[in-house]
Amino acid sequence: MSSSxxxxxxxxxIPRDPxxxxxxxxxxxxxxxxxxxxxVPEKTEKPIVIYKGKGTKLGKIPAVNSNLDKLKAIDxxxxxxxxxxxxxxxxxxxxxxxxxxxxxxxAMDEHEEEAVEEKLGKWTVGGLRELLELFNLQTVGDKDAIxxxxxxxxxxxxxxxxxxxxxxxxxxxxxxxxRYRRR
Length: 183
Fold this sequence. Notes:
Elements: H1 2-8, H2 62-70, H3 76-86, H4 95-101, H5 110-121, H6 125-134, H7 143-155
Helix pairs in contact: 3-4, 5-7, 6-7
């Protein structure tokens, strides 16, 4: 039976290779992690070009300069005015100094003038009146008259000669009813 047992088994004994221990050299080497980064092209900001106009610099006009001092650089009026004058919104640090250096638009053709008027036309009447107060101009009139007044000023800025609203003397108020006044 032993011969039949051996023949019935299809398994053949194959001796295994002797196990050779691997040399241990210390802690395992860790793979360096590769972080996923997106290649972003660096923005090259073009410096703002302040054109030489024919008017007075806004910083040289006393009323406008004092109004610019009161204005905050993060105010929407300042940002919007900078966008109109220089074509892009400015950096907060240099926004007010750029506005002070503005001395009028250079010679504008009809297309450029219409573009500036269109930008001003998108403003509300309240915002346009704030600009007029900033430049110490008269604030009366409808939207078209205000835009025309602003365009004349922005082409050639000059001192309007009006006393600023902050420097006007307030009227003395009298009590309404003298009966209730203390004696």
